[in-house]
Amino acid sequence: MAVSFGWEHRRPAGLSQNFKNREMLWLWCQLEWKGYNLDATRVSDISSRANHIIDSILDADKETVDDLRRYESDCFSGRLDDEEFKWIDFNNRRLVSWVLGYINSGMLYVGTPTTNFDQSVLRSHERIKLAFDLSSLALNIKKDTMLHLRNNWSLLIGIDPSLDWVNRKDDEQCRWLVDQLQSGDFAPFISPEFQRPISNEDRVIMFFNAIDMSGFSLNIKRLYLKDLKSKWRRKQKKLDGRKVQCNLNVDSLTKENIKDISVRRKLKMGELIDALVAEEVARLKAEDDVL
For residues 258 and 272, is the Cβ–Cβ distance under 8 A? Predict the structure, then answer.
């Protein structure tokens, strides 16, 4: 069953039922360029955006039915069908970040369009489709550009077997990867979007994206990752050599709480104790520094 939105019953005469959310975002930009004073705070929400466009058209009383038909004709005449975007898994944050990064880089015929609103508030699929929809390129060049993107991604993921040792659940490793990335040859390719990661997922995507966006050959990337993997293993062996067994008697409830917190923080019980003690030592040191 087709999904319906609250604004569709208000669709102005001249716009057909085929003129939906994607098209309304395109129309927002056309009206913006035409001089309409649109409220940018409403662009991120599908229904609010569409209703604001409709209200603006009605209030201005400048667009005739024929004008709106021409808008629709222009919109559909030079745009890619939704099928052309199906290879992009919009739940794959690494892939989406790479596509957006490629569009923003200026290395494609299709680039980031000029708008009066911050495009980062849009959903990722809206941002990517909008870049193609607002491009003045001929339809066949847009198709070639999309094929170029797909082929490049197919080549890029050839590096994936060299990334199989990266563990998103390992907080220590994820932070270490960021440190290595920021101090190495791939640092210039770190996206501004990931400059301040706040989670392991952010850190891993930051790491993957820099490798994906770099212009280095597949062999150079493999050598870099092989070297990193060796460094990480040496680091782990060194840490394992420092570990000692520590038997503690604690309340049974405390033991259950340690287990629960370990699961929540995705750490082993010993790793959790290490982390909690390290945090407390850092806190006490900060207090001593203040005094």
Answer: yes
Radius of gyration of the chain (CA): 26
**18-57: b (≥16 Cβ within 10 Å) or e:** ebbbbbbbbbbbebbeeebebeeebbbebeebbbbbbebb
Task: Give the DSSP letter of residue 44.
Answer: S
pLDDT tens digits along 61-104: 989 999 999 999 999 998 999 999 999 999 999 999 999 999 99
> Per-residue pLDDT averaged across 168-188, rounded?
93
pLDDT for the residue 251: 81
Do residues 99 and 42 touch, judged by C-beta distance below 8 A? no
Encoding tokens for residue 33? 């360029």
Better-predicted residue by pLDDT, 1 or 146: 146
> Letter for the amino acid at 138?
A
Closest CA to 116 of 37, 189, 177: 37
pLDDT range class, residue 290, cuts 50, 70, 90: low
Q: Are 13 and 68 in contact (CB under 8 A)?
A: yes
Distance between CA atoms of residues 111 and 105, nearest Å:
8
Let me know: does 197 contact 210? Beta carbons within 8 Å: no
End-to-end CA distance of the chain: 66
Tens digits of residue pLDDT in 94-131 = 999 999 999 998 888 899 899 999 999 999 999 999 99
CA pair distance 178, 238, nearest whole angstrom: 20
Cβ atoms of 174 and 69 closer than 8 Å: no
| Rounded Cα gap, residues 127 and 188, in angstroms | 24
Residue in the structure block whose two tokens are 């049974």:
252
Rounded distance between C-alpha atoms, residue 227 and residue 97, angstroms: 25
Measure CA 245 to chain center.
Answer: 42
